[in-house]
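in:
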């Protein structure tokens, strides 16, 4: 029995874990890396896709599922198990991801022809997505499912997204038994629409996320009040409220709050204000949230359903599907709330709305989810004064706000509460994944000291023997020279120096992304950096 870590190792994206047991080869999630050129990771799995027998999906988010069509393209033809709601969401999300891959490769190819760089092939296409969707097997929470001799699984509601789950895997091989629990993304308590996380009380090994392992969410007395206040202030200035939001999960939660804000007329002076959801994927997800109700919605949402009220719909809600619909939003004469994906501002229609609003001091950009290192969203939160969108430099004059109360991830207290439930049997080891380097390392030290647990924070490629509880292969840690490791603006006495550090990290990300640029552009970029170094290094 062996486990290898192929993603979300000392990073938040690209979740993928490889399990070998009972003569079978299995993956737990197969997510896309966000904030980088995914083509660089096309062969990063280091395994033969055609040899994989089963894939188990904890939830539908692209950082956990986005490379499934790539596996199909590379020869995977096994079975994929997920909850029924996750299957429904994946059916729209993977098609959407394939469309984005095809669109962006076409755009890069046109650009490449002009610069002499050649044609860019998509990571995968729509047919690859269609092929992999045929392999999904829908499952129900809490049911024990026999996969193969010696392999049984169970999905347990983890309260992160509609259909999200922790995964129990029971293995028996040569009279040796082991139970491994994969946390998936652990949800925040008291989220709208979906239920709170359920707990598991025993495991031999735990693979646990640590996204917010170093912090507690800021207390929000009433999220509706905070959001309504931002909307009122912005509308009073004549600006738009632009919300980069994950199309699946976060957008529906926002609509849940906005329906209540509209119903109670909480934005004084602006009754029945328009709300635009500009994302075909989000529109499709809204339909699925209306379908997958029983067994997934919490008591409050179900009470609305029983009264005949759609929890995420209200009369002033407008949805945008076509490109013409999307473009028309930027010519509105009255202020509006614009919700668009992607949530980290890396792709999709949100970049167009940022282009039209970032330069306007009267507008506000509100972040309502985690922003990974290297993403445009992270750059804006860290105080970028200028950003480049579609080849054009945009000055950032809009207000940049962040609301934490709606986080889909448990904070440190929530993570510890989930771990403390394992009180029937002390695990042999807890693997900490899905956290940035400093966060994962710190969380591992915290739980080792607090509970006396043996922990490991694997790097990508690390392999462990689950019978002997030893590491049998230690990969070289990912290079960290391209960032300023351990330096966060909030830990310095001078916030100005903190912003300088953040700007340095963004510069290193720009350098990394420029690897395949034209030589003349790279040479000019180098001269500019050399000039800055000479000026400030004296």
């Amino acid at each position: 029995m062996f486990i290898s870590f192929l993603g979300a190792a000392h990073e938040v994206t690209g979740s993928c874990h490889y399990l070998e047991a009972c003569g079978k080869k299995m993956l737990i999630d197969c997510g896309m890396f966000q904030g980088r050129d995914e083509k660089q990771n096309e062969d990063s799995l280091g395994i033969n896709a055609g040899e994989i027998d089963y894939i188990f999906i904890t939830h539908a988010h692209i950082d956990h599922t986005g490379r499934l069509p790539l596996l199909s393209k590379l020869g995977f033809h096994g079975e994929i198990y997920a909850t029924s709601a996750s299957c429904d969401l994946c059916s729209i999300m993977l098609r959407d991801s394939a469309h984005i891959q095809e669109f962006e490769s076409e755009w890069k190819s046109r650009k490449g022809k002009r610069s002499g760089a050649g044609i860019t092939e998509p990571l995968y296409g729509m047919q690859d997505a269609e092929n992999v969707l045929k392999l999904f097997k829908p499952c129900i929470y809490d049911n024990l499912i026999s996969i193969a001799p010696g392999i049984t699984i169970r999905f347990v509601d983890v309260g992160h997204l509609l259909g999200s789950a922790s995964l129990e895997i029971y293995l028996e091989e040569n009279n040796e038994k082991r139970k491994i629990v994969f946390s998936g993304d652990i949800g925040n308590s008291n989220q709208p629409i979906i239920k709170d996380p359920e707990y598991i009380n025993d495991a031999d090994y735990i693979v646990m996320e640590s996204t917010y392992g170093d912090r507690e969410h800021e207390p929000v007395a009433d999220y509706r009040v905070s959001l309504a206040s931002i909307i009122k202030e912005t509308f009073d200035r004549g600006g738009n409220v632009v919300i980069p939001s994950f199309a699946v999960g976060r957008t529906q939660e926002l609509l849940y709050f906005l329906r209540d804000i509209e119903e109670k007329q909480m934005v004084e002076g602006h009754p029945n204000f328009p709300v635009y959801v500009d994302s075909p994927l989000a529109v499709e997800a809204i339909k699925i949230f209306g379908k997958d109700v029983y067994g997934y919605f919490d008591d409050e949402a179900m009470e609305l359903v029983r009264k005949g009220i759609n929890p995420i719909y209200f009369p002033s809600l407008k949805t945008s599907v076509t490109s013409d619909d999307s473009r028309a939003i930027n010519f509105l004469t009255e202020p509006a709330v614009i919700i668009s994906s992607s949530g980290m501002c890396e792709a999709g229609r949100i970049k167009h709305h940022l282009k039209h609003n970032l330069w306007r001091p009267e507008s506000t950009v509100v972040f309502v989810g985690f922003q990974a290192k290297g993403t445009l969203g992270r750059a804006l939160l860290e105080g970028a004064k200028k950003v480049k969108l579609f080849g054009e430099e945009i000055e950032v004059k809009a207000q940049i706000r962040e609301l934490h109360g709606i986080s889909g991830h448990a904070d440190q207290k929530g993570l510890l509460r989930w771990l403390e439930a394992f009180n029937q049997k002390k695990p042999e080891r807890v693997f900490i994944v899905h956290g940035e380097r400093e966060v994962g390392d710190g969380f591992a030290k915290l739980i080792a000291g607090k509970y006396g647990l043996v922990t490991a924070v694997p790097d990508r490629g690390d392999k462990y023997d689950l019978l002997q509880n030893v590491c049998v292969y230690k990969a070289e840690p990912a290079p960290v020279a391209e960032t300023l490791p351990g330096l966060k603006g909030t830990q310095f006495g001078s916030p100005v120096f903190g912003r300088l550090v953040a700007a340095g990290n963004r510069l290193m990300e720009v350098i990394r992304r420029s690897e395949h640029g034209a030589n003349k552009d790279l040479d000019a970029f180098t001269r500019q950096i050399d000039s800055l170094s000479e000026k400030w290094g004296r």
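note: The first helix runs from residue 62 to 65.
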